[in-house]
Automatic annotation (TrEMBL):
This is Site-specific integrase. Keywords: DNA integration, DNA recombination, DNA-binding. It comes from Nisaea acidiphila. GO terms for biological process: DNA integration; DNA recombination. Belongs to the 'phage' integrase family. Pfam families: Arm-DNA-bind_3 (PF13356), Phage_integrase (PF00589).
């Protein structure tokens, strides 16, 4: 029998020997107090939507008073009258994808198409930076302010502004995918400014290269030393060299063909090899026992790291402030000095975008200045002309 729910009725209510009992309110249809045989009391609302009977829990007593629960029941009833479904909305909210869910799908569907190095790097960003801060947040509720705060924390608290920019790029891409998957409608990363980054331009001089070659000759770890030699002779990326397998090479024709899965740009890349590179590879092939050109601890696994060797070589050669990747920049600078064009350099390095190669354009300043001087001498009548007898 329904009656007006009051604080006195709620306090006295008991399920007795029943598993649960309901005490219905006579003013708001469907509003009731539910009591279990363990004494737990909660306010509920029954309603019908699209022919389906629903029951939603408003809140437990005494956390919710009768008056507060009644007001909430009225609000829900109005929502139902307008076509809403409070219980459905609650279920939808519980099932809404979190940032952890986004990472799981991003990892399984997007990250698998990237190189090993990229996969490890992005996984580290998610697991150590993004998920600890935002893992439980709903993807649809992520705000620009939250992501901007994450970017600031990584930049300022951790003191790694460049890393913060990389995290921002990863979150931006994941949010674009979330939009494609229907998890949200806009990208909250849009409009967030990156930290300023100074493009690094370090090229080994001819003297530094000579000292490096001398140090390589004396280095005790020849496998890693030879890997660095190939880096110098091809301009390839570290991962491309360390993961190279013998089936990629045609040493008779002097060609290294990297499959798409092996390159950063995800396209196959054909690299013509210099005679010295071919000779070095032939020497390595004679003693190789596995599929990898530069084997690690076993022939079936590649060499994974040459940082220690690089540090030792730089100390021996007296080279400061140089990274392994600077060998790639140095390769490009030598090509420029020998008169190679930007398209040719791009082809040698496997660039797919012109702007990537354009970073080396300033290296043409001196050759172009020399050409301008030739024109200037001709115009001013000071160009040297060969004598009659020559």
């Amino acid at each position: 029998m329904a009656e007006l729910l009051t604080d006195q009725i709620v306090r006295r209510a008991s399920a007795g020997s029943r598993a649960q009992a309901f005490f219905w309110d006579d003013q708001i249809k469907g509003f009731a107090l539910r009591v279990t045989n363990r004494g737990t009391k909660a306010f509920v609302l029954d309603y019908r939507i699209k022919g389906r009977q629903r029951r939603i829990t408003i809140g437990n007593y005494p956390d919710w008073t009768v008056a507060a629960a009644r007001d909430r029941a009225k609000t829900m009833k109005r929502e139902v009258d307008l076509g809403g479904d409070p219980m459905g909305a609650r279920h939808e909210d519980r099932q809404a994808a979190t940032m952890q869910d986004l990472w799981d799908r991003y990892r399984d569907e997007h990250l698998v198409h990237k190189t090993d190095r990229s996969r490890k790097d992005e996984a580290a960003m998610w697991e150590s930076l993004i998920l600890p801060a935002l893992g439980r947040e709903k993807v649809r509720d992520m705000s620009t302010d939250q992501i901007e705060q994450l970017h600031w924390d990584i930049s300022e608290k951790r003191g790694t502004p460049v890393r913060a920019n990389r995290v921002l790029e990863v979150v931006r891409k994941s949010m674009n995918l979330a939009i494609r998957w229907g998890w949200r409608s806009e990208n909250p990363v849009t409009g967030i400014k990156k930290n300023p980054e100074q493009k690094r331009e370090r090229y080994l001089s001819s003297d530094e290269i000579a000292r490096l070659n001398a140090a390589l000759e004396e280095h005790p770890e020849q496998v890693s030393a030879d890997a660095i030699r190939i880096l110098m002779l091809t301009g390839a990326r570290r991962g491309e060299v360390l993961n190279a397998t013998w089936d990629m090479f045609d040493l008779e024709k002097g060609i290294w063909t990297m499959p798409s899965a092996h390159t950063k740009q995800r396209r196959s890349h054909r690299v013509p090899l210099a005679t010295s590179a071919v000779e070095l590879l032939r020497r390595l092939r004679e003693t190789s026992k596995g599929r990898y050109v530069f084997a690690g601890k076993s022939p079936d696994h590649p060499l994974t790291d040459i940082k220690r060797t690089w540090k030792s070589l730089c100390q021996k050669a007296g080279i400061e402030n140089a990274r392994i990747h600077d060998l790639r920049h140095s390769f490009a600078s030598i090509l420029v000095s020998q008169g190679a064009s930007l398209p040719l350099i791009g082809a040698m390095l496997g660039h797919t975008q012109v702007q990537t190669t354009q970073r080396y354009a300033h290296l043409y300043d001196e050759p172009l200045r020399g050409a301008a001087e030739l024109v200037s001498r001709a115009i001013n009548g000071t160009s040297e002309k060969p004598g009659r007898g020559e």
